[in-house]
Amino acid sequence: RGGTPNAADFDNMVNVFRAAMDMGIEYIDTGAVYGRAEEALGVLLPERRDKIFLATKLYTNTRAEAQMLFERSLTRMKTDHVDLLHLHSVGERNLDTALSPNGAWSYILEQKEKGLTRFVGITGHNNPPNFMRMLATNQVDVLMTIMNFVDHSTYGFTKAVRQDALERGV
Fold this sequence. Notes:
Low-confidence stretches: none
Distance between the termini: 29 Å
Helix content: 40-55%
Structural class: alpha/beta
Order of helices and strands: HEHEHEHHEHEHH
Number of strands: 5
Largest sheet: 5 strands, parallel
Shape: globular
């Protein structure tokens, strides 16, 4: 994550992705902030795009940055669409900004309307009230978060957030 891998590290990333796909992995989840992972996927995706469910994430509050990140992601991955586009790390987002007309969420929803993503989602590891607020928009297709013993004792995603998502069909 982050940094600039040397040529051998980058080649290894490509080899790991290739091996995973060759073994039948069809769900690929990446993000604009995950170093050069999208570039490594771009080496492989053009020949395999129809066999992969591709998800990526936008780590931002603003529409302008969301647009820049998504366009860059598509270029890096050498594809014209993704299957799932997430607003990343919702617990850290300023939702007043992210949900505004100039926010990242309106941009993400527009990409769904344009067919550049089939589904929209939210991800994160903290701050359940932000997740509840996003779910209340009734615009979220997918929720990706932690659900384990530590969460059960710390944040409680397994309680309120999970229940709300299930009730909304997310």
